[in-house]
Amino acid sequence: PGLDPSKDYAIRFQPVARTTADTVTVPAGYQVQVLFSTGDAVEAGSTAWTEGAFPAWDVTDKRAGGDNDGMHYFALPGVDPQQGGLLAINHEQVDMRVYFPSGTFTGSFNEATATLDQKRLALSSVGVSVIEVTQANGTWSVKHDSTYNRRYTGNSAYGVGGPARSRLGATIIGTLNNCSSGATPWGTYLTCEETTSNYFDSSQPDVNYGWVVELDPQGELLAQGVKRTAMGRFAHENVAYLVGEDNRVAFYMGDDTTPGCIYKFVPTRAYDPVNRAANVNLLDDGTLYVAQFNAGGGGVWIPLVQGNAGLTAADGFATQADVLIECQDAAVSVGGTVMDRPEWITVGPNKDIFVTLTNNSGRGTNAPVDAANPRAENHHGHIIRWNEAGNSPLATTFTWSIFLLAGDPTQAATLNKPNLAGNINGDAFSSPDGLRLDPAGRLWVETDMNLGSTATPTVFGNNGMYCIDPATGVSKRFLVGPVGCEITGIAYTPDLTTFFVNIQHPTQAWPEAGRTPRSSTIVIRRADNQPVGA
Ligand code: FEO
Ligand code: CA
Ligand code: CA
Ligand code: CA
């Protein structure tokens, strides 16, 4: 199942105006439903959070974590995927408001004074929720008795695959800071550990975190999550794949570091589209590359292989495990281009690849301006498009161009910084982060503006979601989130009549007046059951 050939997928919706309203604003004819919020019950038999109650970690370890982020919708065998399936949803951070009574800590979590149980409570709020969801007459709900419902948390045990297992051991407790994510062609979920340094003081080794973790929402291939170390250790944002001839696959990944590189991982073997079990450890053996963006629109994928120039024992890389664990250093030493904070990467149905570079106000200071990062003090970010040579996942070269520079002329004039105006054709935004080319080839952009200094809601409205026609570059504002939130995560049914989107860290009265604001997964549909965005 996929797009419905009887339906129209052209971008025809009437865009919404920028707003700072404390609600989810969508075009006329669209409906918004809150599906799944921090503290909701996940595992069968668990209970939901109630206002003012702060239970033990082994209770919250079975509930929805904080800060819903990247997610993916999976079909289930024997179930019409337009009507029901599995959602795997990342939880990026601890929501102190839901997890701890006010006054437990001053300001933020304090490792020095926290008890072991408090640390476990905090760790229960990161990781992944897998929930079975089902639709009845346009209304979606979580199947609370489903045996698929499962939490993977900062307290769970994970296997270790790939070359760095030699240094890390066979088991690691916890996954951390699960930002965005991806899927594999064989239907597993890839949850990405991003800014894991937030969870350690400088005296502690943190090399166990910063990996891509593969898990099977169906619980069939993998009994537990597995850290796939061959894909490198850095501040992983998300993963997007390109399948080529003979079922060879490339997985693209951004390092959301200021500044950080763009990578791809190419497994040695082709994937097996028929025998799912044959792919079980495919991600443990392959070649990791870093991207070098050159002036003139050309680019090169440089392999990160121990023994290559700059990656020898004399340089501190005695084994491939060393290369993978110190991946950021290895990437820079071989000539990888440091980008203005790579967030999401997406691969379209026509094999175009896009990446959001969310912003880097220190460009010009922390790295020189270059062709692919052309603005000093890049407060608003940009989006780059590239194509692999021959559109092949095995390519070692690519061509690239800047798709758009984000920003707003009004603000640029106010600040007397023409450099911030950008060149968006239509509804302007700042700090693109979430990004997805849907199966109809429409580019969805979700923003994560710094709500402080230069990028202000008075210019752009609250963070939102925009739909861009890649052919014309025309941007239309589709959704605006409530106060204080960022918009992240995008998933949909195969016919695109249902979209799932995450509202992360709202700060006022959304989604329920009179209660603590909570990160939530929402459902967006049209009353006439036509595709979203059309
Ligand atoms: Fe967690 Fe880079 O966003
Ligand atoms: Ca992000
Ligand atoms: Ca961000
Ligand atoms: Ca976030």
Automatic annotation (TrEMBL):
Residues 1-7 have a biased composition (Basic and acidic residues). Gene3D superfamilies: TolB, C-terminal domain (2.120.10.30). It comes from the Bacteria. PANTHER family: DUF839 DOMAIN-CONTAINING PROTEIN, SLR8030 PROTEIN. This is dTDP-glucose 4,6-dehydratase.
